[in-house]
Design brief:
The complex is a heterodimer of chains A (391) and B (166). By secondary structure, chain A is mainly α. Helix content of chain A is 67%, strand content 1%. In chain B, 73% of the residues lie in helices and 0% in strands. The chains are: A mainly alpha (391), B mainly alpha (166).
Chain lengths: 391, 166
């Protein structure tokens, strides 16, 4: 029974495909997988918008949406109808073609990232040898769409937002890639199912997830920071800082194109959380050995939604950083620390089994964290800001 | 030569031509991006996953962005007033054709020196990684040093001297 429930979507797909002639079956299988992705993640997006608004409201001591449906849970439907029926305003001097293309490029690139995500046992659209590389390649191509949106709008706020977004995404992409390379170094593969398989198994009731090793914990923290910056979430949401830039690079978008940007942002959050879960949190594996009877896809989505909750929680808690703080943090703390994590990972790999490597690796990482933090705090001077490159 | 190849080749060439012929510099940069994407898809259609994804990651994710930044930070995206072709376009054409001929000749000649395979060899990402840190580790390190020194040089050029304090 548990086995059937675990594979229920695969069995359902096979059952539908079995009605077709055998020559069409592979194509039909892929199309069904794509439909699954296109149906599940936007639905999750709709749910998350309510979840986020309610959660933020609770953190800020107010009620949040509570008019449409029970407890306001039908709000996304109202929002969707509003976005669809709104007039699509394009600025007079905007570059029409690029302005039109930008949201499409963003959404397509973000959706492509889901193709390699293993959302459950055997539930992956494409098993690529270079799956992780594919994911980061798709993530990198969203930058060009953000630039297209900001530049084509012919609006200073849009352009400033786009420049900020691209500078930030490029800066934080390096630690994002480097911290996932730590996982690749231990697993010896870029294929996501292999990474999940390498974290399978339990000691007692505890799983062998990478986050429970010293290097894995360090890499996970750096990955989480970089992922937050990469998806332009608070405290790194300068590209769309409402108080300074209206809405950043999508200021001049309205109606459904605006909704597409919104969708792209949330789908980016889902996919990067999915990758974080796969790399560090055991993918679709159960967190305790006595819970393995629960279907694997439930675990995957539970972990992703937990990650989304952390995103919302951080948004409700932390203030927005300044541009110079953002860049200093990326280049002076996150990047050197990620390089150190890489070094420690190599040490971990070659020290062999035993308790010594736990002590040595943890000690290096903790000492380095404390020293780097202290040094950068002590160098902080309370003087007027100087803009070296923007005078 | 499948229809896919012709489609991708047409896409790549069209992107390259548009990059040369369009008036607006930012449009040119975006057209170059299209041509990079076409090239990446060509690699993928040849089953070279690593090359294809690396092409997307580095060329679309970094080089195109760099080009765009350079355009916006230097001359702005204003339309050029006069003709888009410089007066020495014939010389440029000759040089481009010369470089292309040299590269083409080198590629065609090197094909003869390689052993011929009956079937296309399957190269996994794993093999490429091993070759990069094994047999080709010295070139890799030299490229890394070169890039690092280029980065430091760029920072030094961009950094203006601070005025002596009052």
């Amino acid at each position: 029974m548990a086995r059937t429930l675990d594979q229920i979507f695969i069995l359902f797909k096979d059952w539908i495909v079995s009605f077709l002639p055998s020559s069409l079956q592979p194509v039909a299988g892929v199309i069904l997988g794509v439909i699954g992705i296109l149906a599940v993640f936007p639905t999750l997006f709709a749910l998350t918008t309510v979840f986020e608004r309610k959660g933020l409201a609770r953190m800020q001591n107010r009620l949040g949406p509570n008019r449409v449906g029970p407890f306001g849970f039908l709000q996304p439907i109202a929002d969707g109808i509003k976005a669809l029926t709104k007039e699509d305003v394009v600025p007079f001097s905007a570059d029409n073609f690029v302005h039109f293309l930008a949201p499409l490029v963003l959404v397509v690139a973000v959706f492509m990232g889901f193709a390699i995500l293993p959302v459950g046992r055997n539930m992956q659209l494409v098993d690529m040898d270079a799956g992780l590389l594919f994911f980061f390649a798709m993530g990198a191509s969203t930058e060009i769409s953000i630039f297209m949106a900001g530049w084509s709008s012919r609006n200073k706020y849009s352009l400033l937002g786009a420049m900020r977004a691209v500078a930030q995404m490029i800066s934080y992409e390096i630690p994002l890639l480097l911290s996932s390379i730590a996982v690749v170094m231990i697993t010896g593969s870029l294929s996501l199912p292999k990474i999940v398989a390498a974290q399978a198994g339990y000691t007692g009731i505890w799983p062998h997830w990478y986050v429970f090793t010293p290097w894995g914990f360090g890499a996970f923290l750096m990955f989480a920071v970089a992922a937050m910056a990469e998806t332009n979430r608070t405290p790194f949401d300068l590209p769309e800082g409402e108080s300074e830039l209206v809405a950043g690079y999508f200021t001049e978008y309205s109606g459904f194109k605006f909704a597409l940007f919104f969708l792209g942002e949330y789908l980016g959050m889902f996919s990067i959380s999915g990758i974080a879960v796969t790399l560090f949190l055991g993918g679709w594996a159960a967190p305790f050995s006595f819970l393995t009877w629960v279907p694997s896809w439930i675990w995957f989505f539970a972990k992703v939604m937990t990650a989304i909750f952390v995103f919302i929680w951080v948004r409700g808690t932390l203030p927005r950083v300044r541009q110079d703080q953002l860049m200093n943090f990326a280049w002076k703390f996150v990047l050197p620390y990620t390089l150190l994590v890489l070094f420690v990972t190599a040490l971990w790999r070659f020290m062999g089994e035993g308790w010594e490597r736990w002590v040595v690796c943890s000690a290096i990482l903790i000492v380095a964290y404390v020293i780097m933090g202290r040094l950068q705090m002590s160098r902080r001077k309370f003087a007027p800001r100087s803009y070296r490159y923007a005078e | 030569m499948s229809p896919v190849f012709y489609f991708l080749a047409a896409l790549t060439v069209a992107g390259g031509l548009a990059a040369v012929l369009l008036r607006n510099l930012v449009h040119c940069a975006l057209a170059v991006t299209v041509s990079f994407a076409g090239l990446a898809l060509l690699f993928l259609s040849l089953d070279a996953q690593f090359a294809g994804f690396a092409q997307i990651l580095i060329y679309i994710g970094a080089v195109a962005i760099l080009v765009v930044f350079a355009i916006l930070l230097t001359r702005g995206a204003e339309l050029p007033g006069g003709a888009i072709f410089s007066r020495t376009w014939i010389a440029g054409l000759v040089i481009a054709a010369g470089v292309f001929a040299l590269l083409g000749w080198a590629v065609i000649e090197s094909a003869r020196a390689l052993p011929t395979y009956a079937a296309a060899p399957t190269v996994s990402v794993h093999d490429i990684g091993l070759a990069l840190v094994g047999r080709y580790v010295l070139p890799l390190e030299i490229v890394a040093l070169l890039l690092t020194s280029a980065t430091i040089g760029a920072v030094i050029v961009a950094m203006h001297e601070k005025e002596p304090s009052r």
